[in-house]
Amino acid sequence: MSLIVYFDEPEAGLVSRVGGKGSNLIALTAAGFPVPPGFVISADAYQLFLDRIDWLERELATFDYDHPDRLREQCARLRSRLAEVAFPVPVQEALRSGLARVAGSAETADPFAVRSSSTFEDLAQAAFAGQHDTYLNVRGVDRLADRVRDCFISLWADRAVLYRHRQGFSQREARMAVVVQRQIDCDVAGVGFSINPVSGRIDRLVIDANYGIGESVVAGEGEVDHFELDKGSLNIVERTIGHKERMIVATPDGVEERAVTRDLADRPSLSDEQVHAVAQLLKKVDGHYGWPQDIEWGWKRDRLYQFQSRPVTTIQPRWTRDDPAERFPNPITPLSWDFILGAFRGSMPYSLALLGLPPLQGDWYQTFDNYVYGNQNAIELIAQYRPLKSRSLAELAAEIADLRRRYGWVHELPINWARDLDRYLIGLGKLSATSLENADLPELWRHMREAIAVASEYFRPNIAISITQAFLHRLLHRLVGMAIGPEKALPVVDGLLAGCETKTAVVNRELHELAQTAAKIPALKRYPHLLGPRKAQCLSGIRQLVPQIHRRPRPPRNGHGLLSPDVVGTTVDRARRHRSDSQKR
Q1: Which of 92, 221, 229, 317 is most buried by its number of CB atoms within 10 A?
Q2: 98-111 pLDDT, tens per residue?
């Protein structure tokens, strides 16, 4: 049992041990970002705290999720009981050890920030931002221990409990770690987004700032300075200097709100040089994670610090027909769209979680005037996602182990999907064999729901497969570019992919063979247009072509390029039956 993990121990930064926030800070420290030093009181320490009670299960069994007011009372009672539980001595000693290492003495009076870090927080499937406690400018080991316990107890805030329930997380498996980080008494601080959170523009960076330690910006209290920059050039394209009346500052006993002096209220809190430095940090963090980030930062004199980073999970929509026009070219009825949307809603979070990406709030597709439109901001964001962090072959060699861990599922996904095809076809066969001639309305509705369930289950990995195919294509292009140079990469990549046994390659090859066969038939060569004046001659040529197509050797192929014996065997048998039926016809 490890009760403490330091920021400079990347091998110990598992979310199950240090929570989402702790894991992010450890990863950022390892990547060289300007994170103030600190440590994490681990989830094992929280479990040691819980080991002192035997009544938690009974309390959880009474939770009334259907009535928020009742649940709020139940959670408040649970937190009151937990506040009376003695803080474990081993955890207190771990806290003293952490202070001694980070501050030089367990009796230090240096200020620290204490932040909750749930093991369910910042997972790909959920976003718990703002649902657990944070305490700033805490001094002394005894007060720090009290705040660590308060963070433990905040796991049972009614908002967090209800959110876990709605996300399908087990209340019994929820655990809390606590980040203890050196507090920086900032002159100016704020937040930054590597995407415009209001417009959804993915080519913009947004920075909000105020004097003090930044809590007024995080909480959205009062006017702040607002800067928007072009993500490529880092040019400031918009600036709004707010009339800043209040700021949060550190005091010997914690933090307090103070008035901003008149001479500073309408002046920019950041110079252009500082804005660009924050923008460069923001862009670097975005590149590190490969996904838009929401960070907290602060300036102390001439030094920039980073305090947090979490993924952006809400992409404001920009509805267009750019992507859906090919998938859904025609109008669609509301009932049909309701069924299809259900399949998309099942596939999208499953696919994003499989890819290790954060959840996105809202739907990717909606209908307007019975036409399907897509959130182009989200679509372009996914298209730009870069799964490979390496920028050189040496960095790639160091990243291979992590790539194997993150994308090992790619090898199994097409195999599993191909195997599921038989179950899908059997399910459709059973449904097709059901007589609906005398079915009443409830029976018809039940039959329809069963058909949608069968189709949705088979469709579920479809988006992950499509996204992964695009990822892998860009990954191959970058790897070849690393080896031989970007300017020479495209023809080499085309040559490598030309031999792949994909469905598209098979269809293209067979179309080419069909064209070559048709070119040998004089009637088709002279009269190729079925709708032209020589329609009869063209039809005569087609009649000559059909027997040659059936006689042409058709070796059984698996479109996914799989070598699994049972899948290949099934594919071969199906091909033989198809050829036999065709010959009979």
Answers
A1: 229
A2: 999 999 999 999 99
